[in-house]
Amino acid sequence: MDNRSKKFIFIPFCLIAQAYQAQGIVKYEWKSSIRPFIDLILDYDINIIQMPCAEAEFNNSLIREPKGISKYDTEEFNEHCQSLADKVTKQIKDLIEANYEIVAILGIEQSPSCCVNYIYTNKGMEKRMGLFMQKLYEKTKELNIPIIGINRKYINKSLKKLEKLLTN
Ligand code: SF4
To answer: Is 114 near ligand 1, meaning CB less than 6 Å away?
Structure first.
């Protein structure tokens, strides 16, 4: 007998590994902002896949200063994000082919790479996807996988949004 869960969720690397974030921007505590997401996802018996951290991989270091979209929106970084999006898409398609279900892809709001709805720019908030997330969306949109942006300033709101999706 095989009791494995057939559901998967794809999450940004730093959702459960805050040390991957740029220096100086981790203002929240692990137990109040990371643990609830892990608990919620595990409560629903869902396999967790951490997508690669586009920024840490590109900088080849975990120690980096925060940079906005205007600094990241270069040919090299876009190519890097495209290559990561291609790899994640292949992983998603392989899982679907093996009869597994992808319940959601999560992003991190405000991130120049991983946001879903809005990004922080030097002119304020702008409505758009991050560079990695946009490419992943373009590659997977025909699969109709829900994409949810997690906002770390509004943890409870984000948790409710995710729970609503998982209960459907
Ligand atoms: S690039 Fe994505 S995974 Fe990496 S720190 Fe930023 S939001 Fe997190």
So the answer is: yes
